Amino acid sequence: MPLTSRQALAKLESCFAAIAALDTDRLVAHYTDDYLLELPYFKPGEPLVAHGRDEARGFLAAILAEQRMLITIDRSFWIEDEQLMVAEYSSTGEFLDNGEPYQNSYVGFWYFEGERVRRLREYYNPQAPRASAI
What we know:
The chain is built from three helices and six strands, in the order ααββαββββ. By secondary structure, the chain is an alpha+beta fold. It has a single domain (5-124), classed as Nuclear Transport Factor 2, Chain: A (Roll). The chain has a six-stranded mixed sheet with strand order 2-1-6-5-4-3, with helices on one face. A hairpin with a 5-residue loop joins strand 4 (84-95) and strand 5 (101-113). The longest helix is centred in the first third of the chain and has 16 residues, at 5-20. The mean pLDDT is 92.
């Protein structure tokens, strides 16, 4: 059954709540088994693609072990025929090893299949550095 705009937005908010709680299992429970995570700007000239829920879980667990983030949805656009939520969002947080601040902004293309996320293609600033790296 296709999602409505409201339902898709609630799913994004639930994903972001799992990230804030550092709960990888709760996060990936929103994904299909064949979930595809695409981060074209993961590292300069080095995109990241994770195929499947298990591969994505490993990558996301490593990220959530390093930093805490609160993510706020700034704008969203629902394309019902595609079951696609295009969203702009921003994060604030900190690195867990030393408390240094982190912030970034994103544009995500969230594709749904039923009530689960089938694919995420997310663009963000890969050079939002740690303060100690400056």
